[in-house]
Amino acid sequence: MRLSVIIPVYNGAETICRAVDSVMAQGHHDLEVIVVDDASTDATFHLVKQQYGDNVQLISLPKNSGSSFARNAGMAVATGDYIAFLDADDSWGQGKIEAITEVLRNRPEIAFLYHGYSLAPMDKPGKDLDLYPRKLSYVRLLAGNVISTSCVVLKNERHFRFATDMRYCEDYELWLRISYRCGAYYLDFPFTRLYRPITSVGGISANRLAMRIGEMRAYARLPRLNPFFLFLVPLLWMGSATKHVLKLLRLL
Question: Taking the model in full, what pTM does it have?
Fold first, then answer.
């Protein structure tokens, strides 16, 4: 089984080596690492090229196009059977690739696998690690995005692509799309460390209103999967707006 790892980065000179090193440390030989530099204005491109050389496939985009376009660019050249994602400011814990490859070899029908994450240093998984993948309820996913991109592994299928016209919640839109067709399966272990909470100030998710609008846009595309969702979308919009108001009230 060959695995392609896609790391989009924009002005990530301070963190990109930590991310790539965490992949290299997995000790998996049949591994393709693709770093997509989204027209960085800092030293990111030259740092990756100097540090890793031919061990990393480095793609440089001519203009800043956003994470969706960058990930798609990496997916377009990926040769692995499966594609794993890692954001440039996150890192993987020990044993991740060993665990997910074991799961996918035993369950080749799984097209969408993800796992938990931690905001603190992680322990190496023990021998008693539970590698039984549990299916995520689609109703639960409709209630809100519970999946971090840095925790996702997908089959390398041409129709699994991010919507490039979305700058917010483009990952959620793709999870909804794939999960509806193929299901999403979960491993209950934090194999990824996020160095910044998903809604922290400073990241793209800090713009709460834009994120909420992105969530609503993801819901608006559900009828493309099934016309029945036409009746459900207004309720989902209402729930999304209610969540936004409640979070604003907690900040007051």
Answer: 0.91
